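Please produce the structure of this protein holding pyridoxal-5'-phosphate.
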Amino acid sequence: MKLIQQLDETFIMHTVKRLPIAIEHAHGNYLTDTEGNTFLDLFTGLGVNTLGHSHPRLMETLVEQGKRFLHISNLFLNPPAIQLAQRLVKHTVKDGKVYFCNSGAEATEAAIKLIHKWSKTHAPERQGIIVYTNGFHGRTLGAVRLTRQPHIYQDFPELNYPVFEATTIEELEEICRTEKPAAVLFEPILGAGGVHALPHEFLLRAQQLCQEHGMLFALDEIQTGIGRTGSLFAYQHEDLPGLHPDLILFAKGIGGGLPLGGIIANHKVADVFGYGDHGTTFAPSPLSAALGNAVLDVLLEEGQLEKGRLAAQKLWTGLQTLQAELPEYIITIQGRGMMIGIRTHLTATQVSHIQSELLTRGILVDIAAKTVIRLLPPLTLQESEIQHFLTTLREVLLHLKK
Ligand SMILES: *Cc1c(COP(=O)(O)O)cnc(C)c1O
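Below is the modeled complex.
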């Protein structure tokens, strides 16, 4: 074992099984480690570096804003944050407000508190949230309660707050008939749960039930948001019409690599929080917020969202061809845009072997739900990189055969 790996194991808690690699620098779509090896990054820091690494527009913003100050606290008016909030509202609920925090789990916490406070005044008989079985909403104590994966929550205290699980329309209807939940919260496409898109009819029916029963309809777009699936948020695709969430959770991609998250609330719930109801020292970081604006500039004004959508189409076509050639390995390609799950017939050990074989050949991919190869590529992925990945994956899969 390398010295640096030993030190990591000695001094940092073992909450993540790390790759034995230390990154020296990252540029564009590539990572370079301390030994000079280069990796095509199809993981992007778990879907954070949507524009690849050291994007010139982001670097410029970082220096410009960073020179002024790094932190001043939320006591002051914060022009970059105000601008970002205004843009996020304009592109989603049209009429509403944003609450900023530093991470995805914090966005979930804010949503839980907001839903709870809303129901206290608007629907006092209602309490609790319906979530999707196997969904993921974060690991802090409130958020982990909504994360319905036993290996993630089982060793920790369960808050006394009702949580209901559903995976079918019938289950949703049953819960709404027999219980009194205050909201639903779903990822439009499960991330950690295996890159599985919830059917459009299911989301529409959930929204309709919310309207019928006077509940809030919330979407966790922490992974699917900020261009990841080819539209700014995953619920906004033209072929998925009719979705109008009351609350949208975001994080990961928005800060361009710096911690930033939050919730967008429509007019119904924009003023639920009053002074002192919620907050955090660091957010909104003016630096993260400035980067957030730069991310939106590149995606929406410089056309990167559209370019990413086209690149994703090429990647999908290639992967579907590979699936047709090797159906004994690949069951299906799932997800949307640059959020892709290659669902395999293989064991967890084999999938983990594929990941390390790809790494040896200079390509970094992720694994979700043990047997799904998860790709969260940058929207800046080039055609040659797509071809290189497809050829290499095919080679690794064919090698497995022998
Ligand atoms: C990553 C993620 C979270 C948690 O975000 P953190 O920043 O890791 O706390 C919550 N929900 C979804 C859908 C995520 O992908």
